[in-house]
Amino acid sequence: MVAGLSYTERGSGFPLVLLHGNGEDSRYFVHQLDAFSADYRVIAVDTRGHGHSPRGDAPFTLEQFAEDLKGLLDALGIARAALLGFSDGANVALIFTLRYPDYVEALILNGGNLNPGGVKASVQLPICLGYGLASLCALFDRRAVPRRELLGLMVKEPHIAPEALAAIRCPTLVIAGDRDMIRDAHTRQIHASIPGAALAILPGDHFVAHQNPAAFNRAVADFLRGRRVP
């Protein structure tokens, strides 16, 4: 554990940092760790309060997760890396890139969203109901607090202005499943808002990296090679 975060590391070479989604941990990328470690130093991070990383006392927000990532990279002596984020991990990667562009060689955004409205209503409504219930339970039982915090991230965050993405200058790949829980129009807005970004819509749902790893890994590898990421 470095800088308060647990992580799994494989391979050597240029750093490729993997950021998981809400309520998961670095094990989500089981099909990516070995696939990319032949060419890269792959670092799969457990976000604050996920996996083996402690919750700590800092705010439980995507902005804090981005600051945690900077702390980890600094502690590891990594001044530049490629970031691959899934779901909330993609949102953290976006926030980090906008704050610290000099750290990011390339950006891969899988199933990210700019605001809660980017999630399909059929998915977001149960999340909102679950958050309300967890918030009520947390008033009487502290064991409900972690669930309230996790659901709160999806209900309240992120809030990234589409026009802010015009500042991103690194090579970027936007990936989503053709049955993703993120609205297709929202995914395409993210793609259109980042100058020169590539777009890949793959067969699968929100968890396409785990369920269709061959297609996902091929799309990522082709992108990294095509953009000559070290």
Explain what this protein looks like in three dimensions.
It is a single chain. The protein is α/β, with parallel strands linked by helices. The protein folds into 2 domains: 7-115 and 161-223, Alpha/Beta hydrolase fold, catalytic domain (Rossmann fold, 3-Layer(aba) Sandwich), CATH 3.40.50.1820; 117-157. Helix content is 40%, strand content 17%. The chain contains 8 helices and 7 strands. It has helices at 30-37, 62-75, 88-99, 121-138, 145-156, 184-193, 208-211, 213-226, and strands spanning 7-10, 15-19, 41-45, 81-86, 104-110, 172-177, 198-202. The two termini are 26 Å apart.
List strands and helices in order, with pairings.
Blueprint: E1 7-10, E2 15-19, H1 30-37, E3 41-45, H2 62-75, E4 81-86, H3 88-99, E5 104-110, H4 121-138, H5 145-156, E6 172-177, H6 184-193, E7 198-202, H7 208-211, H8 213-226
Query: Secondary-structure element order, as H and E?
Result: EEHEHEHEHHEHEHH
| SS summary, helix count | 8
Percentage of residues in strands: 15-25%
| Overall average residue pLDDT | 95
Query: How does CATH name the architecture of the largest domain?
Result: 3-Layer(aba) Sandwich
Kindly report the CATH topology of the largest domain. Rossmann fold
Biggest β-sheet: count, sense, barrel?
7 strands, mixed
Structural class category: alpha/beta
Task: Output the strand order for the largest sheet.
Answer: 1-3-2-4-5-6-7
Q: Classify the helix fraction into a percent range.
A: 40-55%
The number of E-state strands comes to: 7
Low-confidence stretches: none
Characteristic terms for this protein:
single chain; 230 residues; Rossmann fold; 2 domains; 7-stranded mixed β-sheet; 7 strands; globular
